Amino acid sequence: KNSVLSSRSEAVTFSTMFRSEHPRRSSSHHEWRHNKENSNALADDVPEFQAYDGTPRSQMPDDLQEEQNRREHHTDLFASPNLIVRRGQEFRISITFDGPYNPSKDGFYVEFRIGVNPQIHKQTAIIVSPNQDNKGPWQSQLLENKGNIIEMGITPSANCIVGKFLMYAVVVAPTGLIRDKENSSEIYILFNSWAPDDTVFMHDDTERMEYVLNQVGTIYCGSISNVMKRPWHYGQFENGILDACLYLMDDATIPLISRGDPVVVARQGSAKLNSQDDNGVLTGKWSEDYSHGRAPTSWTGSVEILHLYASNGVPVNYAQCWVYAGVFNTFLRCLGIPSRVITNYNSAHDNDRSLKTDIIVDCNGKIDKKYTKDSIWNFHCWNECYMARPDLPLDFGGWQVVDATPQETSDGLYRCGPAPLYGIKQGVICYPYDSPFVFAEVNSDVIFYKRDKYGKLTKVSVNETYVGKMLLTKAIGQDVPINITELYKFPEGTMQERLALQMAESYGTEKDRSVLPKVDVEMKVTVKPVTLGEDFQLVLIFQSLGRSLYNVDVFVSGNVMYYTGVSGPEFMSTTLQVQVDPSRQKTKVPSKYMNKLFGHGNLHFFITGKVKETGHMLNIMHPVSLISPQLTVKVTGVPQVNQRMFVTVEFTNNFGFSLKDVTLTVEGTWVLPPKTKTYSSIAPASTITWTQSFIPMDPGLKMLMACLDCEYLRQVCGTASVYINV
After folding, report:
1. What distance in Å separates the CA atoms of residue 668 and residue 666, rounded to the nearest whole number?
2. Is residue 44 in some structural domain?
3. Bridge pairing between strands 177-178 and 125-128
């Protein structure tokens, strides 16, 4: 079998192997995970002979018409040879008898069983027959009778359980049943966005092609002033991934009877993707010590991660938000739930969901790290999945926000969503799940307080437009971003925005309503795009809003900062005195940072100003994402099926120092599994070149992607596409 897990019993073995090393995965955890309510394990204790008890079972259908069924059900991309269909849509099977089939005389059934103790009333056992009117949830019909061969059409209900079933053809004999245990047939049933009665139905075929069938995506990162991107191989149809996703549902203890509900699957899946409280798929780490795993920036896709977790049940090290979002996207698309990765720039992590992100400044004008608990991420990635919400009022279906990155607990577990996007925009955040938290991520005010030496806090300024500055996702069918900010909130300052905020406040959030003194001087900051390793100048622009001459004491603090808003070493500290008249003044501040920089570090400037004449305070936060060098990726050879080809990755070290302990990873959709090469050192001005061969086995457009990673370089990627001919 082309799968990581050939049976659920193997999943038990894999997990048990590591029980002694990971005491949190207790014996009771395994027993609960694999009991009849929470496991897709297939029963292996069915007797060979059984007297007729009303639920007969015998040998499997002899022709499952896999090729035609998979093509019609849009599952032909799966590497598994099994029959894989989507619910709410008919599939066909052929059955051969040892004599002519007589519909009026022969008692004949097809039975589907899931789990270790299937029961009809729980729809874990389903029986259909062409000989009678089907009153159950699944439908069937006799399509053709050729004497001893019949063709039968079967339509799983549009809300049936998603998972792996055993299928039997059954003939009732007077003496009972003789079961050929070696002839059972496995069939996978998935969500179906092509079926109008399925809760994940989408009307537009181009959207289905992108959000269900596309295996390669782009995840956006960087900062609002320097949007960067990295390719990601979702690989939802790759060998073993479907079984790995079913294994995750087992491990997440999702009851079988709930596995037809995309709300439950998405919510429980968001919890299981992180290891924060249940030893889930990925361990998050936002520091620089990745010695016990791989740096989050070194991954090129989800396939290797899911293979590793499914093979041993141990969390994979390490992840940050885009890795969680990339793997979660694979999980959702593999099961048939339309999904996409979203990037929110200037994303608030509001611990109390108050719509207030509080920044405390000390007497010297620096951010007081001890008392500042809220944070603003340069960017944060989450997912949206598409589904109806029959549990909510009309209009709350459609895109739902889900987030697997562990930030805050929800009902006791680190998970988030599904939160209806419609409700977030309208401010109706009273409905499940976690809408207030998501609303705060895109709508919080940034409030600056000055803390004096006695601990007294004085509010000095409020920025209502800094958070949720822009939300991006990949465009349909194109490798370009589209701005979807308008799906999350109304334009700043409009009546609709005010009404949405008022609505959110009525459900317990609280917007800042204080009135601050009129501003005398306006301060702005600009920085041209900065390539990693280059020094640059910070440009401060001052504008008098009155007619007087003002004197402003300015303090500029520059820190290396993680993209999550956690501050690192300070690389500059400067005090300026600026005279501001009604004209516009520019002040340039030089900046050098390399001796303080660490991998994946961004630069963050915090600028405060005090107007001497009025005592008014000015505050600006400005992140700077450094542009990383790019990899050169080239594909050579005859682009034809079964012909050897080559991918060459090239990188030149243009820095004035050696790069140590460098890893280079290359991966290609359907043509090349992840390959990694290490370099102990790359000297200044030297170039490395790595060529890897591959043989494409099927035609179509393929993408190859490469990623270089080391202590000083954490976002170095490159891609190349090639069309393979027959």
Report:
1. 7
2. yes
3. unpaired
In a domain, 28, yes or no: no
520 carries an active-site annotation: no
Task: Choose the catalytic residue: 307, 349, 380, 604.
Answer: 380
pLDDT at 247: 94
Q: 3: helix, coil or strand? A: coil
Lowest-confidence segment of 8-17, 152-161, 214-223, 306-315 by average pLDDT: 8-17
Q: What is the CATH number of the domain that holds 394?
A: 3.90.260.10
Residues comprising the binding site for Ca(2+)? Answer: 443, 445, 492, 497
Binding site, by residue number, is 443, 445, 492, 497
Residues 534 and 494 in one domain: no
User: Residue 224 corresponds to which tokens in the numbers above?
Assistant: 């609002």
**CA dist., res. 220 & res. 225, Å (int):** 13
Q: Note the pLDDT of residue 182.
A: 54
* 1: confidence class by pLDDT, cuts 50, 70, 90: very low
Pick the catalytic residue: 278, 403, 520, 709? 403
pLDDT at 498 (0 to 100): 93
Residues 6+ positions from 637 with CB-CB distance below 8 Å: 643, 644, 645, 646
Would you call 434 a catalytic residue per the annotation?
no
Tracing tokens 């976690």 back to the chain, one arrives at 434
Q: Which of 190, 220, 243 is the last residue of a domain?
A: 190
Residue 32 has pLDDT above 80, yes or no: no
Q: Is residue 10 part of a domain?
A: no
Same domain? For 637 and 532 the reply is no
- The pLDDT value recorded for residue 353 is 65
Residues of the domain holding 552: 521-626
**pLDDT band for position 26 (50/70/90)?**
very low
Options 160, 221, 245, 321, the catalytic residue: 321
Mean pLDDT within 671-683: 95
Q: Is 321 a catalytic residue?
A: yes
Burial of 351 (0-12, 13-18, 19+ CB in 10 A): middle
